[in-house]
Amino acid sequence: MASPKNEGFLTDEQREVLKIAVQNAEVLSSSPSPRSPTSSLLLQEFYKNNGGGNGAGGGGKALGAGPKHVRRCHSGKFVKVKKDGGGGKGTWGKLIDADLDPCLNDPNDPNYDSGEEPYELVGATICDPFDDYKKSVLNIIEEYFANGSIEAAISDLRDLGFKEYHNYFVKRLISMSMDRRDKEKEMASVLLSSLYSDVLSPAHISQGFMMLLESIEDLALDIPEAPEMLAVFISRAVVDDILPPAFIGRAKKLLPETSKGVEVIKIAEKSYLSAPHHAELLERRWGGTTRLTVEEAKKKIIDFLREYAENGDTAEAFRCIRELGVPFFHHEVVKRAITLAMEKPESESNVLKLLKKANEELLISSSQVSKGFSRVQESLDDLSLDIPSAKAIFNSLTQKAVSEKWLDASFTSSAGANGEVLDGDYAKLRRYKEEVVTIIHEYFLSDDIPELIRSVEELSCPEYNPIFIKKLITLAMDRKNCEKEMASALLAALSMEIFTTDDIVNGFTMLLESAEDTALDVLDASDELSLFLARAVIDDVLAPLNLEEISNKLPPKSSGTETITMARTLASACHAGERLLRCWGGNTGWKVEDAKDKIAKLLEEFETGGDLGEACHCIRDLGMPFFNHEVVKKALVMAMEKKHDKMLDLLNECFNEGLITINQLTKGFTRVRDGIDDLALDIPDAREKFESYVNHARENGWLLASFS
């Protein structure tokens, strides 16, 4: 039997040395060099030193170093390696070996390092947060259309985050609803209103609609009615106060003139926002609505009142009133309750108790109570056909309500001394209101002030002038800024033609008394009323003292008195005239610098031989009555420079025609007085001239007594 030594086996000592060499090779293999030759060198050194330790023989030769270019890998095989001239004795070999060592690329090799394998680039999809947002938004909208839960939609969108993408939500919501039923379209409008200011900012809404306008041509390919639908959505957003009316003008400027987006804007502007009663029409535009309809509300009111008449459960009746969620419609509750008391006299005590307690607990406001009584009063003729004693019962109920102080005593001002309703007066008032509404709507369409004045004069009802003012401003507040500007311009014209200051004061008083109810329909009614009041002061329609007069007629600490305070602040602010002229956004007025140039030119033309009537006509055409003090100032300065009194003739004519008011004349004289020192540098006798003009003005009643 051959000796193990001759068969190439290692001694125990050699095995121990080999084990140490392998361990050292593993430790050194973690070197940062790309490919460490340490393990191979150690093994070669081991075989070189221990090759003859087994004695000379075939086995020893096999275990020895053997040929210089033979290496033994750990799998037990010997591999011949071509030296290729790289390196020599005591060197690390070539910097880069052309032939890679198969041992080092063998995954079974203990020295194998996967990090040394060539890198392989693997394609991977980059995650875009906007893509995730779009998918989530799609699910939110689909769920909302399925379950109708506004609260869930608001919560989901808020939790989603990514506020910078919310304009896409607006676009996606509307575009998805376009391809669905009217119910979903109404749901989309309601959701936008619910999200506004809480989750969606005004910028999100505007940008979302702008994106829709820019992509309407693509939408129209799939949904031919898309332009018409988008026009309705834009108009509805304006009515719901989530999109400013100024958006219409901005969108026109940003979109190409020939684009479909401009067509959509024109449809919204002409077909919907300019139509009479457009707010009510747009609220019902989609047919079925998610909100309570008028007919449904009336039915619910009748049902719970009948139930209340039987059981007298006031708490249950109050719960039903609150559940209706229509505080602006509480006058219907009052009307139906009074009618029920007329039909069933035995329920009268319960009805009076309900209305009195509802008013005391502020569930039904005083103005809603008055409106309810007024509606019954207007329909007494019809009620008398079914209930012969309707007028007597109504008079009795009215007296009890006034005596118990839950109906305003002023309600009886249009009744006779004995409390009997004056049927002729009510019929006349009702006809007047109907005709006035028609006249105002025609004015908003035509902008023809002379025609309106002629129509009002033909009515021959000067006692109802305050009602006209109330109707005018109420209708204007529910329309665009253009109509608000037209209303202010009309007030200025009416104050000079046919309306007295008392008419205007009483009209604004009526408006402010019902301000709380108006605010239910027009959210920023208080702000707009304050602008109308301040503008009236600037236009000399009202004097500042008239604001105090109106305030004294209102209950203290009411919303009306707050509106008066706000109007005073606006009218007394620096540059109030210029600002209030443009309080409704863009309007037809001149810029201040342009107005000054025009005033200077018309005065120069008049001074060089112009006609007095033509000069007055030019001043009137400026359309800036609040700025007429500039006419006074320039006329006085020009009179000083030219040293003749022709300009005083012009001022006298303007004053006599009511073109320039005493307030504006006083303000003009005050401005000249304040700048007299500077004028004296160029006009030596400026002070003497000014004193003579002041005396002339006082003699003709041009100046207020406060001027000194």
Automatic annotation (TrEMBL):
InterPro entries: ARM-type_fold, Initiation_fac_eIF4g_MI, PDCD4. Residues 132-253, 296-417, 431-552, 594-708 form the MI domain. It comes from the Eukaryota. GO terms for cellular component: cytoplasm. SUPFAM superfamilies: ARM repeat. Keywords: Cytoplasm, Nucleus, Repeat, Translation regulation. Its main location: cytoplasm. GO terms for biological process: negative regulation of DNA-templated transcription; regulation of translation. Transmembrane segments: none annotated. SMART domains: MA3. It is found in: Cytoplasm. Belongs to the PDCD4 family. This is Programmed cell death protein 4.
